[in-house]
Design brief:
By secondary structure, the chain is of the alpha/beta class. Helix content is 41%, strand content 17%. Strand 11, helix 11 and strand 12 form a beta-alpha-beta unit. The longest helix has 19 residues. 46% of the residues are buried.
């Protein structure tokens, strides 16, 4: 037996774990619903928020500093208030707050020899994560053979672009969908269809856009996207390395496409030697299958896939035919030891909970949440429209859909105890990413009660 295994099997470790898990359970179970901040913490908390704004060069979007403790979707803040967290770091905390599986994973990680894993030196759980993701991706025979771990979704996306350009050299152009969000690095800011995110930055890539699918005109937007794609390919023959596809537009407004829409685009791209990249940094594990490309039946077109957020560590998946011929892929860190172990634990629990499948927990809760929002829309005409999204990605449009209306509604929800975030433009929406591993109907009921209270307070 390895010495490391002897350490993990030491009864003192098991006893320490039991004590910590019991303490966590005893204290986290006190956090069971929305509550306001406490007066005795008000001044200290306000001071901490001011210092945070000064330290980071700007105020955080929400006046949010966690106390460090929560219970599922409930999170306690430093002022003693409790929020129902239905945005979880924009999709990061798939088991919510203070889940015992996360404590268990991080204890085991803390017993390892290093707190970070890297390109030069790996632990066994780095291998386990790579093999787990490849296995999930190949469930329906997608041609994905390799997995490169990285510390952020942006880095995973950058690696996908590097592989694509390397494989299709000298092609230098990228095709994206309108309203795309790929990240904020120098390269990814060019793919992201938000001019404000490129303000003052030099141009780094040539990117052309096509219309994304819209349910109000499915045939027209599908046809328009195909026509625009054909025009781009004809105008710049041989110059495109890849097409970048979000199968559910996250930042763009929670617009899911259809198999017909995406399949037509993918087929034309493959016919023209253009690689297909599926950006699943936000969608991974939130639909009927682990991958959104599986949900839409697009496995055959998956040349490269990126994922992250909910796995705590991010990754780029690609086929053997795309293995770089030169040393273009490397990084000091592939992920924190705790992140990798925690990510594996998240995947275990999502599968154990039955999140996947056409009638799995993800899709069942979407239907439940959607019906509740639809009922709210009917009771509050003109104040809410929707719902939008797919699986454990759901949104609504407040009022006239203006940026001001959406921001006002988002702040009102926060003040009442529900956390969401913005998405889209024209219209602007409120989006939710409930933690898929622990969200119940009761949590959704409470969220909808808060939304209705916020609507009743709106003009």
């Amino acid at each position: 037996m390895l010495t490391s295994q002897e350490l993990l099997n030491d009864p003192r470790v098991a006893q320490a774990k039991e004590l910590l898990l019991a303490a966590l359970r005893d204290h986290s179970q006190k956090i069971t619903g929305v509550r306001p901040g406490r007066e005795e913490h008000r001044t200290e908390y306000a001071d901490a928020l001011t210092r945070l704004a000064n330290a980071r060069g700007g105020a955080p979007y929400f006046p949010y500093i966690s106390s460090g403790l929560g219970n599922g979707p409930w999170v306690e803040l430093g002022d003693g208030s409790v929020k129902l967290d239905f945005i979880v770091g924009i999709g990061v905390h798939g088991l919510g707050h203070s889940h015992p599986a996360m404590l268990n994973a991080t204890i085991d990680a803390g017993l390892e020899d290093t707190i970070m894993q890297g390109n030069l030196q790996h632990d066994a759980y780095s291998l386990a994560m790579c093999e787990r993701l490849i296995g999930l991706a190949k469930k329906f025979e997608a041609p994905l053979d390799h997995c490169l771990l990285s510390t952020s979704g942006a880095m995973a996306n950058e690696n996908a672009l590097k592989i694509a350009f390397h494989s299709r050299f000298p092609a230098t152009r990228v095709i994206c969908m309108d309203n795309c969000f790929a990240g904020r690095s120098m390269a990814l800011a060019q793919l992201t269809d938000r001019p404000a995110y490129r303000m003052g930055l030099p141009k780094t890539l040539d990117v052309d856009f096509i219309p994304m699918f819209h349910p109000s005109d499915p045939d027209g937007t599908t046809r328009g996207a195909m026509e625009m794609l054909q025009k781009h390919l004809a105008r710049h023959p041989g110059e495109y390395a890849c097409i970048w596809l979000e199968l559910v537009a996250g930042e763009g407004g929670y617009y899911p496409g259809t198999k017909e829409y995406f399949e037509g685009l993918c087929r034309v791209c493959h016919d023209n030697n253009v690689l297909v990249i599926f950006d699943e940094v936000q969608t991974f594990t939130r639909l009927s299958q682990p991958f959104a490309f599986q949900h839409f039946g697009l496995d055959a077109y998956a040349d490269l896939v990126t994922l992250g957020k909910i796995t705590q560590v991010c990754a780029t998946l690609y086929g053997d035919q795309l293995k770089p011929k030169g040393p273009i892929l490397s990084q000091t860190f592939t992920g924190a030891t705790a992140s990798i172990r925690a990510g594996l634990a998240v995947l275990d629990i999502l599968e154990e909970k039955g999140c996947f499948g056409e009638k799995g927990w993800n899709m069942e809760r979407h239907v439940y949440f959607a019906k509740k929002l639809q009922a709210l829309a009917e009771r509050n005409p003109g104040k809410l429209s929707g719902p939008y999204g797919e699986g454990m990605m759901i949104a609504f449009t407040p009022g006239d859909g203006s940026a001001e209306t959406a921001k006002t509604m988002l702040q009102r929800l926060y003040d009442l105890g529900l956390m969401g975030f913005l998405a889209g433009s024209n219209p602007n929406r409120i989006r939710f990413l409930p933690p898929p591993g622990i969200t119940t109907h009761e949590h959704i009921d409470i969220a909808c009660e808060i939304i209705e209270r916020a609507l009743s307070e709106s003009n």
